[in-house]
Amino acid sequence: MDKIQKIKGFADLFPPDSTVFAFIEQTARDVFSRYGYRELRVPVLERTELFSRSIGEETDVVQKEMYTFPDRKGRSLTLRPEATAGVMRALIEDKRAGEGLAKFFAYGPMFRYERPQKGRMRQFHQIDVEAVGSPEPLLDAEVLLMLDQYLRALGLSELTVELNSLGCRECRPVFLDVLREFLKGMHKEKLCDDCMRRKLTNPLRVLDCKVPQCKEFTADAPRITDHLCPDCAEHFAAVRRILDAAGLDYTLNPRLVRGLDYYVRTTFEIVSGNIGSQSSVAGGGRYDGLVASLGGADVPGVGFACGMERLALLIGGVTEAAPDFVLVVLDPAGLDRGLLLAQDLRRAGFAGEAPFAAKSVKSQMRAADKSGASFCLVLGADELAQGTVVVKNMRAGGQETVGQDLLPAFLRARLEEAQGE
């Protein structure tokens, strides 16, 4: 029978890749919790309407990239292409949107039918952060500062923060009219097929096109920051003032529009020059009005998402912690006692392994060396009879015979000595 292979664009993650992902997730918990964010878990499967209403019918995500299918009752369901809409739906259903400032983070798999490429798969993973309930520019600034803190905690430093404002319901329509007029005379020889469609349905996306000819012929396109209303201009200036005071370097990018319709005012992206043409590793912004469009209260919000695959490319490898001990059993009669001794050590907080079957001393010692364990614990016939164990210090050298009941305290003392050196 032919073996079953994985679907193209869906990756298996073994160590060390899974170790890097665990590091990314744990660092998110550590950093975000210091800013008052709590973890939320939402389903990967939602009603299709949620994404068509939140992301926008005319976006590439909805029109080309979603995994959508009917269930057995004919309801249209979609594997989530992004996290924000699902988080908003959860906050609305649980009546948390509109009850003060709600601050949550989530992580997990997303799904888009795209051409698999470096750092981008059809099943990909994101870290998602959402703060709902405040319109203040100080929240925008703090979110960006937290994102910077998070990326630094991951060990990343050579990144560029790109910043823009997309205006609001009052000033963006005015800008869109100006932009449509600019794009009016652009024909196929100047714009790609997608942008020929976008200039009518979603002209902002033309500014974000990566096709060289589109970038060339729209280089002199009007800038949205030149058409901000007084309130949006003041909001953007306040965000920049805080970032400047905090010493966060950023670059103003008037072509930064993001790919989803719900963004307003502050928008940002973190890019790297080390992972090829798909350089964005994180992005987000403000989405006032999104909650109301999904049937909730008319409350503002701001957030961001980080692509975990791209973060993993930048991080490289993460060193896995070596075990504290490896147990070597010289007498097959000691296998039971060895397993129970290892269990006692694990209860005491140590990490390590014990054999399940009789093997040669040579092969067991070779495995102990290879594991990188701090201690090799040898249990032979004499030790079984005397209730002791031989402790070989695999780093400092030497060995000592220790009573099995005293073993946890002995190992802890030796590890503390090693850390103090």
TrEMBL record:
What is catalysed by this protein?
Answer: tRNA(His) + L-histidine + ATP = L-histidyl-tRNA(His) + AMP + diphosphate + H(+)
Family annotation (Pfam families): HGTP_anticodon, tRNA-synt_His
Domain of life of the source: Bacteria
Q: Which UniProt keywords apply?
A: Aminoacyl-tRNA synthetase, ATP-binding, Cytoplasm, Ligase, Nucleotide-binding, Protein biosynthesis
Enzyme Commission no: 6.1.1.21
* GO BP term, pick one: histidyl-tRNA aminoacylation
List membrane-spanning regions: none
Does the entry feature the keyword Thylakoid, yes or no?
A: no
Cell compartments where the protein resides: Cytoplasm
A Gene Ontology cellular component where this protein is annotated is: cytoplasm
State whether it acts alone or in a complex, and with which partners, per the record.
Homodimer.
NCBIfam families, alphabetized: hisS
- Family membership noted in the UniProt record: Belongs to the class-II aminoacyl-tRNA synthetase family.
Q: What is this protein called?
A: Histidine--tRNA ligase
